[in-house]
Predict the 3D structure of the following.
Amino acid sequence: MQTFLKTEREGAVLVVTMDQPETRNALTGNTAVEEFLEMVKMVERDRTIKAIILTATGSVFCSGGNVKHMARYYTEDLTMESVVDEYRHGIQLLPKALHKLDVPIICAVNGPAIGAGLDLTCMCDIRIASENATFAESFVKVGIVPGDGGAWLLPRVVGISKASEMTFTGDLLSAQEALACGLVSRVVPHDKLMEEARSMAARIVRNSGPALRMAKRLLREGESSSLDSLLELSASYQAIAHTTKEHHDVVRAFVEKRKD
């Protein structure tokens, strides 16, 4: 069976590429979710990975759900309960896994990111868009709702007003429109996309691995915690950070340089 993900180590960076261009890198009707979950487990175990770049082959980043696969919901004798379970134990495992993953994820969006494909970009920490990229929260266009957590993810990236506009219209955003609303942090020429992603990853992985993982956890916790709770957690993580070899090495180098 053809695999959905290709992975390649580049030092402390893991490059993850969705590689089913013939399906426009659709996330359903294949092994995509299972492979993402396995990748997350591997990264959680490997403390030498400090950053991930997620991108795709072909002209489309990700078309979301496979529309052809959706026909089974009315051609097969499925109960509502079985469909709910299919979502719970399928596509909904993806945002849970990526949201909990401690390692920073740079999403290099090479082309259209549609429906669950757009939501996948929102599961990442940083989004860089090729000038060829487009974005649409397009579920309503095919008569469904964001079943993968998009109604939770998208407002946290672009704000509730813009998320509502995108969700209710399903309209397509250009790369520059995505930049204007904060959906992506930068737009680059298409042939410079991976160069820019690798450059950003290089700047990230220069830093302490333990500190990066704890910093990402704090950002995630900050989305739902009170200030008091986050400050308490920050103090605990800082106490841990002060004990790490990485912190000791940086402080020692700084002090020794000052002595010169």
Summary: The chain has two domains: 5-205, 209-259. Residues 98 and 167 are 22 Å apart (CA to CA). The first strand starts at residue 5 and ends at 10. The beta strands are 5-10, 13-18, 51-56, 105-109, 113-114, 126-130, 134-136, 173-174, 186-188.
